[in-house]
Amino acid sequence: MDGVDLIFARLAANGGAMYGGEAVTQLQHALQCATFARDEGASATLIAAALLHDYGHVMGDAEREDSALAAEGIDTAHEHVAAAYLERWFPPEVTEPIRFHVPAKRYLCAVDPAYFATLSPASVQSLDVQGGVFTADEADAFIAQPHADDAVRLRRWDDLAKDPAAETPRLEVFRPYVEDVRLSAG
Fold first, then answer.
1. Model pTM?
2. pLDDT confidence tier of residue 70, bands split at 50, 70 and 90
3. Cβ-contact 90, 48 below 8 angstroms
4. Among candidates 16, 6, 161, 24, which has minimal Cα distance to 86?
């Protein structure tokens, strides 16, 4: 099985788990996020990143959800787990926005006074265990990194992708985007 087949099989098999403390499944969340990216005319790399940004949540057979661990003050660093796993098949334009989507939440809380009020209760809880709001210096350092702007775009779609009534395309609709951006050796 090639890398993309494995990734899609895992999304299909494990995507039915609930997405933290939200009213959507992992797969619904991923599809909504990718749909927002596609509908805004994002690049194929950013659409792939949007689809796969929470892949760290569906990779294994964890006994407890990340939301339960967050309640105990434990950060699973799902963004690093996903990015490290996916970088064997995808370029940094895909993996770095994935790696940075959690720091992007910390950044947005620091630079946009209205942003925090838009976070769901589960996102507020995870923000605390993920390091809290960036200081001004941390925010400046974050946004200066390559791919940070794309991570901020991804983060905004991530925050919107929690609607249990949203209609999205099927998972396979996004396969061409993922296939198009994978590394030639992938």
1. 0.90
2. very low
3. yes
4. 6
